Amino acid sequence: MDKYSLLGLSRDCTEEEIRNAYKRLALKCHPDKPTGDRETFSSLEQAYKTLSEPSARASYDNELANASKLMHPVWQAVNLDDMELLDDSYRMDCRCGASLQAGKQSLVNLPALIECNDCSTMVRVDPAA
Ligand SMILES: [Zn+2]
């Protein structure tokens, strides 16, 4: 479970919401209480520590975004030579009709993923056949 779900919050919640949710839940599962649960309490503490610190929260958000990218189903795998070579980038048509483009530099290490800005489809680019 991610730290936001643990606190019952959405990812765009405010700092105040984080603080309030943490206080409420931490009170409920504090190990000194009959309803206490040490494990949950320490997860809550860790979640709060990360989310209440802006730079830690930003890097955690980044981590979450990357994780969901990896889980995102790849729509299509193409070879580098299936793509049209432009001056300093490669391009192809996305299934949504938008143009998928990636700089040559970003395709040095293959396979690489290109994400469509319009429909968030992922295409995997494999080395030329
Ligand atoms: Zn698209």
Automatic annotation (TrEMBL):
Keyword Lipid biosynthesis part of the UniProt annotation: no
Keywords: Iron, Metal-binding, Zinc
UniProt-listed PROSITE patterns: DNAJ_2
CDD domains: DnaJ
Pfam families noted in UniProt: DnaJ, Zn_ribbon_CSL
InterPro entries listed in its UniProt record: DnaJ_domain, DPH_MB_dom, DPH_MB_sf, J_dom_sf
Single Gene Ontology MF annotation: ferrous iron binding
Tree of life domain: Eukaryota
Ranges of residues in domain J: 2-64
Keyword field contains Cell inner membrane: no
Family of this protein: Belongs to the DPH4 family.
Protein name: Diphthamide biosynthesis protein 4
Native species: Galendromus occidentalis (western predatory mite)
Lineage of the species this protein comes from: Eukaryota, Metazoa, Ecdysozoa, Arthropoda, Chelicerata
Gene of this entry: LOC100899472
